[in-house]
Request: fold
Amino acid sequence: MTVKPETISELKEIYNLIRPEIKKRLDEFEENRRKADNNKIFEELSFCILSSGVGPKMAEHSITVMGMNIHKSSDAELSDMLIDVHKYPEKTSYVVATREYLKEHFNYALFEHLTGIEDRIERRDFIAANKSIRGVGMVQASHFLRNIGFSGYAILDRNILTALNKYGILEDKKPPSTRNKYIEKENLMIDFSDKLSISIDELDLLLWYRKNNKIPR
Reply:
């Protein structure tokens, strides 16, 4: 990996400017971890399910519209709520199927189960490779874990892949097609974060800001 010195200096300059905003967002994620509220944890997972293919803004609005109904209403009821709100209101079927699975097998205490998994890769695999947790791949699983306070995951969405390709970290900006390829690209991003002397969680927020001029959820 050859990174131009001007790339590192540019990103460090931006990082120093927005560091308080980055820290504030990461503190919010850590607060989710400290509270470990079962309802909030499921809402974060649902947010990640609903953000796939449409982005965070639409997903966040959908969560707000459903409110506490997300924990009890049927697929049809939730889907009706998201007509004219979400591009794919039928994705509520993923939300409900996942909700019922978590209630039946973990008494809704997903966070407690995840905390008991010490290996970070295994923890993500439980989410991403679990066919009972619907509509969640490596990107969404990484996003979810980061949002509930687990650090060290690369969220390799379109924005981040494009940025890493632009800075010469990745040879291309194609989404990784397998778990192993995802981990390979994730490790390259971790190496890049080490060169910048910031965490991968901070780097994710920094690159997102560099592309969109805002800190993502």
